[in-house]
Amino acid sequence: MQRRAFLATSAACCLPVWTARAADNFPVRPVRIVVPYAAGGGPDVQTRQLGPLLGEALGQPIVVENKVGAAGVLAAQVVAAAAPDGYTVLQGAITHLLQKVLQPSLKFDPLADFSPIGNISTGASVLVVAADAPWRTAQELIAAARAAPGKMNYGSGGIGTTAHLAGATLVALAKLQATHIPLRGSVEIAGSLLRGDTQFAFPIAATALPQIQGGKLRALAITSAERASALPEVPTLHELLGSKLAVQEAWSGLWAPARTPPEVMQRLFSALGSTLKTPAARKIIEAGGGQLAASASPQAYAEFIRAESAKWTEIVRLIGLTPN
């Protein structure tokens, strides 16, 4: 009995040493990135293309695994339950904050269950109308909506999507009366505008740009904090409405399970940072319609996520969307 107690005590004493050594040597095997989106989609493709660059910086291969379900929650739960050793990380995104804000009863907490490593990219939504619509500016659209309360519709890919929330934010901040039309998916937004079923919408920039450049849609505003290089003449919604709630960007980065050792976090952050400094990484991100948005540190990224959570909670309250 005494020998068994001695062995247990000895193992417990040595555990921090083993953990420290494992952290010092990290990584010694492939690192898995769990992606909450289907294979072949934009976020998945971006992660797979960045994977070899990140693997080169880490000195170990990157394995991308898709865990689709529950609007990203399934993947988050898998990573939150993984060992906090740096070998399993999540492609964490704005969608995880939104799902928790909209469904507080979910069995995961994006703030408490993860150690944010660093952000990778961001992308805005664009306020668009059909190219032959009579409104040439956002101010003209707002004035027309005020003159005909309840007569305008705005479309989105569904309730709780970024297009829905951006449209509802415009309606609330500009004090408009307009009807939300949930479509069967975001790919239907352009067609709905061209048919006249809806009068305005907020598709993501990556989807909207080809339609704008092709002359089918007209851009009136963008939800980014600053004007986009691809649309330099288009004002931000923040410029027009003067509210921080009008800044709405879809961002994504890497999250590790909570309690991942600081040494491992720093190794992952350093590798991600050096990866994002390469021209190849910038090209990959911009080709997907996003903007490179690297974090200054894991702590800065964590503070950003907390601020975003508070902002989106305020937005949901503003638009009167009842959490489930």
Largest sheet: 6 strands, mixed
CATH architecture verdict of the largest domain: 3-Layer(aba) Sandwich
Order of helices and strands: HEHEHEHEEHEHEHEHEHEHHEH
- Low-confidence parts lasting 5 or more residues at pLDDT below 50? 1-12
Q: Number of helix segments?
A: 12
CATH superfamily of the largest domain: Bordetella uptake gene, domain 1
Estimate nothing, just give the exact number of structural domains: 2
Shape: globular
Measured distance between first and last alpha carbons: 53 Å
Mean pLDDT: 92
The spatial strand order of the largest sheet comes to 2-1-3-10-4-11
Give the CATH level 1 class of the largest domain: Alpha Beta
| Percent of residues in helices | 40-55%
Radius of gyration: 22 Å
Summing up helix and strand content along with how strands pair, one would put the structural category as alpha/beta
Beta-strand segment tally: 11
Strand content: 15-25%
CATH topology of the largest domain: D-Maltodextrin-Binding Protein, domain 2
